[in-house]
């Protein structure tokens, strides 16, 4: 029969072990939440002007090409 031996673990090692275990999952959820928030806020002019226009590949899609004479304000 195998014998189990208790090996104490320092709080720092325990914290690092838990952090390593959850880092990938939390990273994936964070990217998903950020993408969802950006998608939901993409209709606001501030997000379009300050963030989405500056994205290298899709920035031209979000540029406002409406002439100034056609804007009401």
Pattern of helices and strands? HH
- Kindly provide the radius of gyration, computed on alpha-carbon positions and rounded to a whole number of angstroms: 24 Å
Major sheet summary line: none
Strand content: under 5%
Which residues sit in consecutive blocks of at least 5 with pLDDT less than 50? none
Q: What is the terminal separation in angstroms?
A: 83 Å
Question: What structural class do helix, strand and pairing data support?
Answer: mainly alpha
Residue share in helices?
40-55%
Number of contiguous helices: 2
Overall pLDDT:
90
Number of strands: 0
Described by the principal axes of the CA atoms, the overall outline is rod-shaped
Transmembrane segments: 26-47
Keywords: Membrane, Transmembrane, Transmembrane helix
InterPro entries: Cytochrome_b-c1_su10_fun (IPR019182)
Protein name: Cytochrome b-c1 complex subunit 10
Characterise the protein shown here.
The protein has 73 residues and is mostly helical. It has a domain of 47 residues. It is 51% helix and 0% strand. The chain is rod-shaped and about 85 Å long.
């Amino acid at each position: 029969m195998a014998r189990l031996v208790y090996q104490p673990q320092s709080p720092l090692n325990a914290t690092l072990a838990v952090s390593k275990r959850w880092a990938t999952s939390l990273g994936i959820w964070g990217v998903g939440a950020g993408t969802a928030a950006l998608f939901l806020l993409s209709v606001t002019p501030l997000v379009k002007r300050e963030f989405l226009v500056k994205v290298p590949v899709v920035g031209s899609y979000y540029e406002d090409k409406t002439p100034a004479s056609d804007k009401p304000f």
